[in-house]
Design brief:
five-stranded antiparallel beta sheet, 11 strands, about 15% helix
Length: about 130
Amino acid sequence: MKIDIRAGKHVLYKQNKQWRAGVLLPAAARVDENGLYVMVGEPDGIEESVELNDLFLDAVPLDDYYKRDPDIFMTKEEYINFIESDDFIKGAETAYISDGDYIYYPISKYNKAWLEKQPFNYVVRGQYE
């Protein structure tokens, strides 16, 4: 299995137990007794040294095509209304958390409380690899 770690790659990283979005920076990695660290930058100029195990590397760019389809791309509030409706079939559902630009991780609990705790404001329905 090949791991895609390169400068410019869009990632999520943990900071103070919260997920934040950033990109891997073209900087020297360092290794110490606690792990392997890489530099991550955010659009606002914040740069952090992040341990490799605190990175989520599987972000998928969200195509504009999906953003135009309200049955695929919706706000968390719209999705909560959907999962509480009679149209929702849990066994047939696959959906992911998104920041509106990238698709991140799958929704693991289809309930309002879990969704409200997620750090991003959008949901993308469907299967993505």
